[in-house]
Amino acid sequence: MTDREPLLEIIDLNKHFYVKGQQRPVRAVDGVSLELNRGETLSVVGESGCGKSTLARAALRIHEPTSGRVIFKGQDLLNLSRKRLRAKRKEMQFIFQDPYASLDTRWPVGSIVTEPLVIHGAGDYRSRQKKLHELLELVGLDPTAANRYPHEFSGGQRQRIGIARAVALEPDLIVADEPVSALDVSIQSQIINLLIRLKQDLSLAYIFITHDLAVVKHISDRVAVMYLGVIIEFAGVEELFSNPLHPYTQALISAIPRIDYRQSGRRIVLTGDVPDPSDPPSGCRFHPRCIHRMDICSQEQPQTLTLGSNGSWHTVNCHLYTDAINL
Ligand code: SF4
Description:
The chain is of the alpha/beta class and 327 residues long. It has one domain (6-321): Rossmann fold (3-Layer(aba) Sandwich). The protein has 10 helices and 12 strands. The chain has helices spanning 52-59, 82-88, 109-119, 125-138, 155-167, 185-202, 213-219, 237-242, 247-254, 322-326, and strands at 8-17, 26-36, 41-45, 67-72, 75-76, 92-95, 173-177, 205-210, 222-227, 230-236, 305-306, 314-316. A hairpin with a 2-residue loop joins strand 9 and strand 10. The longest helix has 18 residues, at 185-202. Bound molecules: iron/sulfur cluster. Iron/sulfur cluster (SF4) binds at residues 246-247, 284, 286-287, 290, 292-294, 297, 302, 318-320.
């Protein structure tokens, strides 16, 4: 592949779950298309239950997608045999939300971090031990950590162990699923800064899954906003925060706490919960909660409109902007 091709293209991806006793499937991911370039951080944001974690898992075939295409480095992952997919996995790694649950507590840290190297047959014992020390140093842990067990570490240190394991095989892509939401606020920024540094040092691309828009602002290049299984807005991070178009995005951004009261705008309070994804509302899925809803909103599903200006690129799914496109 050339540098100009996207690292990852997700094309019309669907992941539907069939629940026993329920006639209609849960459409957790419903026709999502996104792309990610090398060295880029794409954040996928939305409330809990919007399908963002399922999207990431379906894209990497941790959950088998219902349909769609996922092109990674020019190869469709959905066409790979299990064996070839396993080999490919070393180029795509995961960092999980709960560092404690994702580490085998019976193993010393050295074995946890070198496990991917052993599984993929990378190097011999000596070279793996050398790599282990480099990895621990890279993530800010003392080399003596190798002989200790996960329960001996704080939450932030455990997430550093998870990150060391994720980068051990020098992947191109890391999916980080709410990697700081289980940590104290004071530790969150340390882990975010570590991820930003590793992205630069190791030329990584991230898919960053989170409900926290304050974090998104610091780490992202582009942001996709997800609601009830679909992407409803997609833009560069500066464009999205300075000019949010979708009423849902506007509400999420208005809820970010600000230290300087002069920057505080009017808070838009979202009422109601995310609806049942097995029975999504007609038309625009957000219409029961939208303060700008019009008659058409419950009748017609809004198309994806491209509204970039001044060289910025921005898509939104909302009837409010149909006239702007047709002018
Ligand atoms: Fe609100 Fe209608 Fe836009 Fe949906 S399409 S976000 S209901 S204005």
